[in-house]
Amino acid sequence: MTMQRHETIRKPAAPGDAPNLRDYDATRAAFDWADAEREIDWLPDGGLNLAYEAIDRHVAHGNGAKPAMLWEGKNGEKETYTYEEMRRESNRFANVLAALGVRKGDRVFTFMERVPEIYFAVFGALKAGCVAGPLFSAFGPDPVKDRLEDSGAKVLVTQPELRAKIAEVIPQLPELERVIVVNKNERSKEPLAPGDLDYGALMREASPDFALIGATRDDYSLMHYTSGTTGKPKGAVHRHNAVIQHYLTGKWCLDLRPSDVYWCTADPGWVTGTSYGMSAPWTNGVTQVIYEGGFNARKWWQILQDYNVNVWYTAPTAIRMLMKSGAGLPQTFDLSSLRFAASVGEPLNPEAVEWGVEAIGMPFHDNWWQTETGGIMIANYASADIRPGSMGKPLPGVHPGIIDAEGNELPDGKEGNLAVRAPWPSMFQTYWRQQERYDSRFVNGWYVTGDEAVRDADGYYWFIGRSDDVINTAGHLVGPFEVESALIEHPAVAEAGVIGKPDPIAMEVVKAFVSLKDGYEPSDALRRELTGFAREKLAAAVAPREIEIIPSLPKTRSGKIMRRLLKARELGLDEGDTSTLEED
Ligand code: AMP
């Protein structure tokens, strides 16, 4: 199996507009986290607070009048907040919490759309010493209940329609003491449910000054629930110290510069939406675009144009959906401000990396990390050559390896478990109330990520799949990603998901599910054509034995194709926790 099927995309040796990380190898060799720690502002007592770093610090440095947030609502409403306004609003919310008797370490959850108030609430909670837990607004009652119950959240901040959606579970949560409702539409004010509090009224009375509740670097800051292969989702808990890595990766992996306008398409309900939708951009002092609406190809290009976005962080599914609408569309917009485009969350197929060059004049820079790592760990950098299909190279200061089941490191070119030497600044600190499960993720000083990967001789990491997704067919290990990437190259294929289907002879055979691009119809002839196409690209041992054409693939709410679910359906098994699935 050759790892590289596509041409390397070379970067100029000395770019005119030099990126933040100019020389990867030299920086990595000389790296010391203490240098990064000196670049941020510690509190006078030596403490560290993510909200202070992201917001107040810029005010203290004389940049309070700079716009921090350019918000556009789903109905075209617009609001702008400077760093000083963000400071005041988050202070107000910290005061609201303090007045309600909320104390250090209490969990404050949000269940909100991407409206400015979610940012004030999260930063306010962090200033008040609480653990903030943003929940994705598309969740239904059960996943919300599971998470609020497990975390023992004391306060929930939500909005009227979302409050109504989960009305039945609120009385079932004994630890939940307060529900604060943000009603952005003052004119159509619904009466509050008995016991609920009105955000607007509380905030009007709250002071814009707040003395931070002493935070040390080790105090818990944020928690995000993440689904495993088994059991209910578990709460990965982070600490304020993560801000060091958020800041550094914002600068080095996303090439953020203080004069930039930045757009991260992730929702704060997912870790990308907090680490890279709150912490990294604002600690780097940029102006951030927040768009409340969902995916729409034309609208997205419009946002990039209208806000003169310089740095854009998005996800492979979105990129593939943009590809579906064609490379001609972005060319009808003025995207001349765009300097850097990055992607995370699932494998980015090489065609998508290259499509960036065609459509927006630059490749998409894939990077790898996960809820538990808290920040970017492996990345393609502005200054470094890209091998399309690779996740890139480790962040300086982060030491991944490929290990076997016993925790022994494997040489270059050998597939195995992707692991990272513990610790690093943004490493998760526990799974909430599940310490044993947390401990089980570490072997021989390695954190085992649950992904399988391989490193090539030049230090690039290549994703293969989740460790439980890799297919063993007739003694050959086959990565579903590789097969999916091949299928996606066929002009009719929009998306592909590949699983191992049990087989009495070969142990498993490769089965592919594909959805088609607009204008293609399923047929036996097309299925045969795809089989032949894949065989030609991959050889019969690796190519799918079976291809099934389905209208769309099941995806998590954050857009990952759920091979697990395809497999469960194929085998007629219980489909497990589907709470992160997209709605039909
Ligand atoms: P989450 O914790 O939900 O952010 O999911 C993290 C998982 O998404 C990782 O363990 C990988 O399986 C997958 N993932 C994230 N980024 C990438 C990437 N760049 N390439 C391939 N898989 C990725």
What does this structure look like?
The chain is of the alpha/beta class. The protein folds into two domains: 2-452, Rossmann fold; 471-571, GMP Synthetase, Chain A, domain 3 (2-Layer Sandwich), CATH 3.30.300.30. It is built from 17 helices and 27 strands. A nine-stranded mixed sheet has the order 2-1-11-10-12-13-14-15-16. Helix 9 packs across helix 10 (271-283). It is globular. 50% of the residues are buried. The model has no long low-confidence stretch (mean pLDDT 92). The site of adenosine monophosphate has 18 residues, from strand 14, strand 21 and strand 22.
Q: What keywords describe this structure?
A:
17 helices, Rossmann fold, 27 strands, single chain, five-stranded parallel beta sheet, 29% helix, binds adenosine monophosphate, 2 domains, 584 residues, 22% strand
CATH class of the largest domain: Alpha Beta
Quote the CATH topology of the largest domain: Rossmann fold
Q: Name the CATH architecture of the largest domain.
A: 3-Layer(aba) Sandwich
Quaternary state reads single chain
**Total number of helical segments?**
17
Biggest beta-sheet profile? 9 strands, mixed
Let me know the average pLDDT. 92
- Please tell me the total number of domains: 2
**Radius of gyration from the alpha-carbon trace, in angstroms:** 23 Å
Helix content: 25-40%
**Approximate strand percentage:** 15-25%
Q: What are the bound molecules?
A: adenosine monophosphate
DSSP strand count: 27
Q: Unreliable stretches, pLDDT < 50, 5 or more residues? A: none
Strand order of the largest sheet: 2-1-11-10-12-13-14-15-16
| C-alpha geometry | globular
Spatial separation of the terminal alpha carbons: 38 Å
The structural class is alpha/beta
CATH superfamily (homologous) name of the largest domain: ANL, N-terminal domain
